[in-house]
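**Protein fold record**
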Amino acid sequence: MIAALIAGTLLGVVLGTVSGLVPGVHVNTMAGLLLSLSPILIVTLGAPLLAAALVAALITHTFLDCVPSTFLGVPDADTAVMVLPAHALCLEGRGGEAVRISALGSAAAVVWSLPLSLLFFTLFPAFQPFFDLWIGVLLTAVACYLVVFSESPEWAAGIFLVSGFLGLVTFRYSFLAWGGGTSVLMPLLSGLFGVSVLLSASSGRMPPQSDAVTFPGRNELFRCSCAGSVAGAVVGWLPGLSNATANALLASVIDYGDDRRGYILATSAANTANAFLGLAALYAIGRTRNGVMVALATLEVPPFTVLLPVAALAAALAYAATVLLSGTAGIFSRVPLKPLNAAVILFVTLLSFLLCGPFGLVVLILATCVGVVPTLVEVRRVYCMGVVMVPVILSSLGVAVL
């Protein structure tokens, strides 16, 4: 079995690297590909290898998805808010630094996630009914905190509610999208946090990218990685939440404008911790938190204590790959920003159409219109996370709006 687990881990690292580096391609896509081939793969390679590949792909994706977010400004569901400080550092010639800090945050999350996974696995199932009941109240409190202490509570509340209404409408009519389901997250988040930012970006040329890296100090590393790991663990365990919710929670305690490196560190940690705790939730309470867990639930998987080392090995390989790819920042040196931004916007538009059809284009346009408002009224873009938080809050409280 050990040989099969190692082979599966290597296969998963390759698949997770591809999904992480290609904007708009989520690791769930790779999970669906493997699941479609599972009858052949299980017979020829065995269920343990397939399970290891799925877990390794998920963990690897959480490391590598920072690369397109940083250099191109294209978010996915897990890097929506992080793209703002990371891409800003890239425009200052520090893109490689942003990627390495992100990798460090994900690596630190592995250290935190192993004991957190075991803790949640053994203690939290007994409290699950309580968590299911109060999650909506908790998120409402967080949303109120974000709005009340914003630069302009009126504008913050308006952006939060309008983006929330957009999220409700999009998810309600997601069946109109060619891909259906969560595929609508791509145009939705790309409009709010990608295209809207690129439209207001400066022209000129990409500055030369420096190889120098200033890592956060020991205290900041401990504080931010711990906060991110706990936030990612919580949303990885609780029902109806995503890593985008964790990013919004972290924005309430870490200002991504003043402490960009700390925020990148924390959100990357949350991204990876979310993956670990999603695995723990599958084994402990039978809940599936993402497409990879859905695929795993259909297999005869090895014990939880066997897949944890697989995840740790995948994390080590993914960290090395991310650090290696951070050196590609020099490719973007002196690249004209206006043509690059136009090319990225065109790519996102085509990808939205390919994934979701005409419905995806409508969502992308509406999300972009909402996404430009924070810049115009000078408030933080984090309030656009209402697009995810409002539907989750109403669903958790049992409120049917549409």
In short: The two ends are 49 Å apart (CA to CA). The mean pLDDT is 81.
